[in-house]
Amino acid sequence: MNISSSLRSMRLPLALAAALATAPFAMAQDSTGAMKPSPSRSGAMQAAPMAKGAMEDPMVGGAAMSAQKDIVTNAAKSQDHTTLVKAVKAAGLVDTLKGAGPFTVFAPTNEAFDALPEGTVDALLKPANKAKLVDVLTYHVVPGRLDSQALKAQAHNGKVSLTTVEGQALTVQQQGSTWTVTDAQGNVARITIADVYQSNGVIFVVDKVLMPAAK
Protein backbone atom coordinates (compact mmCIF):
# COMPACT_ATOMS: atom_id res chain seq x y z
CA MET A 1 0.00 0.00 0.00
CA ASN A 2 1.44 3.41 -0.91
CA ILE A 3 1.71 6.39 1.45
CA SER A 4 -1.27 8.29 0.12
CA SER A 5 -3.52 5.21 0.18
CA SER A 6 -2.47 4.40 3.72
CA LEU A 7 -3.37 7.86 4.97
CA ARG A 8 -6.53 8.19 2.92
CA SER A 9 -7.81 4.88 4.27
CA MET A 10 -8.02 6.49 7.70
CA ARG A 11 -10.46 9.17 6.51
CA LEU A 12 -14.21 8.84 6.80
CA PRO A 13 -16.26 9.85 3.76
CA LEU A 14 -17.68 13.03 5.24
CA ALA A 15 -17.41 16.56 3.91
CA LEU A 16 -15.97 19.46 5.86
CA ALA A 17 -18.73 21.27 7.71
CA ALA A 18 -19.53 24.80 6.66
CA ALA A 19 -18.87 25.79 10.23
CA LEU A 20 -15.18 25.36 9.61
CA ALA A 21 -15.05 28.60 7.66
CA THR A 22 -12.68 27.30 9.66
CA ALA A 23 1.55 16.53 -7.66
CA PRO A 24 3.74 15.10 -8.53
CA PHE A 25 6.57 15.31 -6.11
CA ALA A 26 10.33 15.08 -6.15
CA MET A 27 12.50 13.36 -3.59
CA ALA A 28 14.98 15.82 -2.11
CA GLN A 29 18.23 14.76 -0.59
CA ASP A 30 18.71 15.60 3.10
CA SER A 31 20.99 18.43 4.04
CA THR A 32 21.74 19.96 7.41
CA GLY A 33 20.43 23.21 8.83
CA ALA A 34 17.04 24.87 8.89
CA MET A 35 15.50 28.25 8.27
CA LYS A 36 13.85 30.65 10.67
CA PRO A 37 12.09 33.99 10.29
CA SER A 38 14.10 37.15 10.55
CA PRO A 39 13.46 39.18 13.68
CA SER A 40 12.67 42.04 11.29
CA ARG A 41 9.19 42.59 9.86
CA SER A 42 10.21 41.49 6.38
CA GLY A 43 9.11 37.89 6.88
CA ALA A 44 12.46 36.70 5.51
CA MET A 45 13.66 33.31 6.67
CA GLN A 46 17.12 32.92 8.12
CA ALA A 47 19.11 30.01 9.49
CA ALA A 48 17.41 28.56 12.57
CA PRO A 49 19.40 28.50 15.81
CA MET A 50 21.02 25.17 16.53
CA ALA A 51 20.99 23.25 19.79
CA LYS A 52 24.18 23.85 21.74
CA GLY A 53 26.55 20.96 21.20
CA ALA A 54 24.38 19.47 18.44
CA MET A 55 24.90 21.56 15.35
CA GLU A 56 22.68 19.35 13.22
CA ASP A 57 19.58 19.93 15.35
CA PRO A 58 17.58 23.14 14.72
CA MET A 59 15.46 24.62 17.50
CA VAL A 60 11.67 24.73 17.16
CA GLY A 61 9.36 25.70 19.99
CA GLY A 62 12.24 25.74 22.44
CA ALA A 63 13.35 22.19 21.65
CA ALA A 64 16.02 20.63 19.46
CA MET A 65 14.59 18.81 16.45
CA SER A 66 16.65 15.69 15.77
CA ALA A 67 16.94 14.54 12.17
CA GLN A 68 17.16 11.03 13.61
CA LYS A 69 13.65 11.22 15.12
CA ASP A 70 10.29 10.97 13.39
CA ILE A 71 7.80 13.79 12.78
CA VAL A 72 5.53 13.05 15.74
CA THR A 73 8.36 12.53 18.21
CA ASN A 74 9.94 15.86 17.29
CA ALA A 75 6.64 17.79 17.15
CA ALA A 76 5.75 16.53 20.62
CA LYS A 77 8.83 18.32 21.99
CA SER A 78 7.88 21.71 20.53
CA GLN A 79 6.09 24.07 22.90
CA ASP A 80 4.65 25.80 19.83
CA HIS A 81 2.89 22.69 18.50
CA THR A 82 0.95 21.22 21.42
CA THR A 83 -2.40 21.80 19.70
CA LEU A 84 -1.19 20.15 16.50
CA VAL A 85 0.05 17.09 18.39
CA LYS A 86 -3.24 16.87 20.28
CA ALA A 87 -5.11 17.01 16.97
CA VAL A 88 -2.91 14.33 15.39
CA LYS A 89 -3.66 12.03 18.33
CA ALA A 90 -7.40 12.74 18.14
CA ALA A 91 -7.38 11.98 14.41
CA GLY A 92 -5.62 8.66 14.91
CA LEU A 93 -2.70 9.67 12.68
CA VAL A 94 0.15 9.14 15.15
CA ASP A 95 1.23 5.73 13.87
CA THR A 96 1.05 6.88 10.26
CA LEU A 97 3.15 10.00 10.82
CA LYS A 98 5.65 7.97 12.83
CA GLY A 99 5.93 5.58 9.90
CA ALA A 100 8.54 5.40 7.17
CA GLY A 101 6.97 8.06 4.96
CA PRO A 102 8.55 10.18 3.75
CA PHE A 103 6.22 13.11 4.35
CA THR A 104 6.44 16.86 3.93
CA VAL A 105 4.40 18.49 6.70
CA PHE A 106 3.28 22.12 6.98
CA ALA A 107 2.95 22.43 10.75
CA PRO A 108 0.69 25.20 12.14
CA THR A 109 1.67 26.70 15.48
CA ASN A 110 -0.58 26.99 18.52
CA GLU A 111 -1.13 30.65 17.60
CA ALA A 112 -2.32 29.57 14.16
CA PHE A 113 -4.97 27.31 15.71
CA ASP A 114 -5.93 30.05 18.18
CA ALA A 115 -6.60 32.39 15.24
CA LEU A 116 -9.38 30.14 13.88
CA PRO A 117 -12.98 31.19 14.60
CA GLU A 118 -13.95 30.62 18.23
CA GLY A 119 -14.96 27.05 18.94
CA THR A 120 -13.46 25.60 15.75
CA VAL A 121 -10.65 23.66 17.41
CA ASP A 122 -12.90 22.28 20.14
CA ALA A 123 -15.41 21.18 17.51
CA LEU A 124 -12.74 19.47 15.41
CA LEU A 125 -11.41 17.54 18.40
CA LYS A 126 -14.79 15.96 19.15
CA PRO A 127 -14.98 12.25 18.22
CA ALA A 128 -18.05 12.95 16.08
CA ASN A 129 -15.95 15.24 13.87
CA LYS A 130 -12.96 12.93 13.46
CA ALA A 131 -13.39 12.71 9.69
CA LYS A 132 -13.34 16.51 9.38
CA LEU A 133 -10.22 16.66 11.54
CA VAL A 134 -8.49 14.04 9.38
CA ASP A 135 -9.35 16.08 6.28
CA VAL A 136 -7.82 19.21 7.76
CA LEU A 137 -4.66 17.50 9.02
CA THR A 138 -3.97 15.47 5.88
CA TYR A 139 -4.35 18.70 3.90
CA HIS A 140 -1.12 19.75 5.63
CA VAL A 141 0.75 16.64 4.47
CA VAL A 142 2.38 16.09 1.06
CA PRO A 143 3.90 12.74 0.07
CA GLY A 144 7.68 12.82 -0.28
CA ARG A 145 10.54 14.77 1.26
CA LEU A 146 10.35 18.23 -0.27
CA ASP A 147 12.77 20.72 1.22
CA SER A 148 13.17 24.31 0.03
CA GLN A 149 15.69 23.34 -2.62
CA ALA A 150 13.31 20.75 -4.05
CA LEU A 151 10.50 23.32 -4.08
CA LYS A 152 12.71 25.82 -5.90
CA ALA A 153 13.59 23.17 -8.47
CA GLN A 154 9.91 22.47 -9.15
CA ALA A 155 8.75 26.08 -9.12
CA HIS A 156 7.59 27.96 -12.22
CA ASN A 157 7.69 31.73 -11.87
CA GLY A 158 8.29 31.26 -8.17
CA LYS A 159 5.25 29.02 -7.60
CA VAL A 160 4.73 25.29 -7.17
CA SER A 161 1.45 23.40 -6.73
CA LEU A 162 1.57 20.43 -4.35
CA THR A 163 -1.08 17.73 -4.15
CA THR A 164 -1.75 16.86 -0.51
CA VAL A 165 -2.71 13.52 0.98
CA GLU A 166 -6.21 14.95 1.48
CA GLY A 167 -6.39 15.27 -2.31
CA GLN A 168 -6.57 19.02 -2.84
CA ALA A 169 -3.68 21.28 -3.72
CA LEU A 170 -1.57 23.82 -1.87
CA THR A 171 0.40 26.54 -3.65
CA VAL A 172 3.85 27.35 -2.31
CA GLN A 173 5.36 30.62 -3.48
CA GLN A 174 8.72 32.29 -3.01
CA GLN A 175 9.05 36.06 -3.12
CA GLY A 176 12.61 37.00 -2.37
CA SER A 177 13.47 35.37 0.94
CA THR A 178 9.80 35.03 1.95
CA TRP A 179 7.88 31.79 1.41
CA THR A 180 4.11 31.49 1.60
CA VAL A 181 1.55 28.70 1.31
CA THR A 182 -1.91 29.41 -0.14
CA ASP A 183 -4.74 26.99 0.60
CA ALA A 184 -7.83 26.07 -1.42
CA GLN A 185 -9.84 28.81 0.29
CA GLY A 186 -7.35 31.52 -0.64
CA ASN A 187 -5.86 31.87 2.84
CA VAL A 188 -2.14 32.66 2.83
CA ALA A 189 0.19 31.30 5.49
CA ARG A 190 3.81 32.33 5.92
CA ILE A 191 6.51 29.72 6.36
CA THR A 192 8.35 30.82 9.49
CA ILE A 193 10.76 27.92 9.83
CA ALA A 194 11.78 25.78 6.85
CA ASP A 195 13.72 22.59 6.23
CA VAL A 196 13.39 20.97 9.65
CA TYR A 197 14.57 17.50 8.68
CA GLN A 198 13.08 14.39 10.24
CA SER A 199 13.95 10.72 9.93
CA ASN A 200 10.77 10.30 7.88
CA GLY A 201 10.46 13.62 6.10
CA VAL A 202 10.71 17.37 6.56
CA ILE A 203 8.67 19.98 8.43
CA PHE A 204 7.85 23.57 7.50
CA VAL A 205 6.40 25.62 10.35
CA VAL A 206 3.52 27.87 9.19
CA ASP A 207 1.64 30.69 10.91
CA LYS A 208 -1.88 29.74 9.76
CA VAL A 209 -4.00 26.61 9.63
CA LEU A 210 -4.51 25.58 6.01
CA MET A 211 -8.05 24.69 4.97
CA PRO A 212 -9.25 22.57 2.04
CA ALA A 213 -12.29 23.69 0.06
CA ALA A 214 -15.63 22.49 1.38
CA LYS A 215 -16.85 19.34 -0.33
Shape, principal axes of CA atoms? globular
Beta-strand residue percentage: 25-35%
Share of helix, binned: 10-25%
Helix/strand-derived class?
alpha+beta
Q: Using only CA atoms, what is the Rg?
A: 16 Å
CATH class of the domain at 34-147 and 192-206: Mainly Beta
Word description of this protein:
This protein is 24% helix and 28% strand. The chain is α+β, with helices and mostly antiparallel strands. The radius of gyration is 16 Å and the shape is globular. The relative contact order is 0.23. The model is unreliable at 1-55 (pLDDT under 50).
List keywords for this structure.
215 residues, alpha+beta, FAS1 domain, 7-stranded mixed beta sheet, 3-stranded antiparallel beta sheet, 8 helices, disordered N terminus
Layout of SSEs?
Elements: H1 3-8, E1 35-37, E2 45-47, E3 50-51, E4 54-60, E5 63-64, H2 71-75, H3 82-91, H4 94-97, E6 103-108, H5 110-114, H6 120-124, H7 130-138, E7 141-143, H8 148-154, E8 159-163, E9 169-175, E10 178-182, E11 188-198, E12 201-206
Parallel strand pairs: 6-12
Antiparallel strand pairs: 1-2, 3-4, 4-5, 6-7, 8-9, 9-10, 10-11, 11-12
Brief account:
This protein is of the alpha+beta class and 215 residues long. Helices cover 24% and strands 28% of the residues.
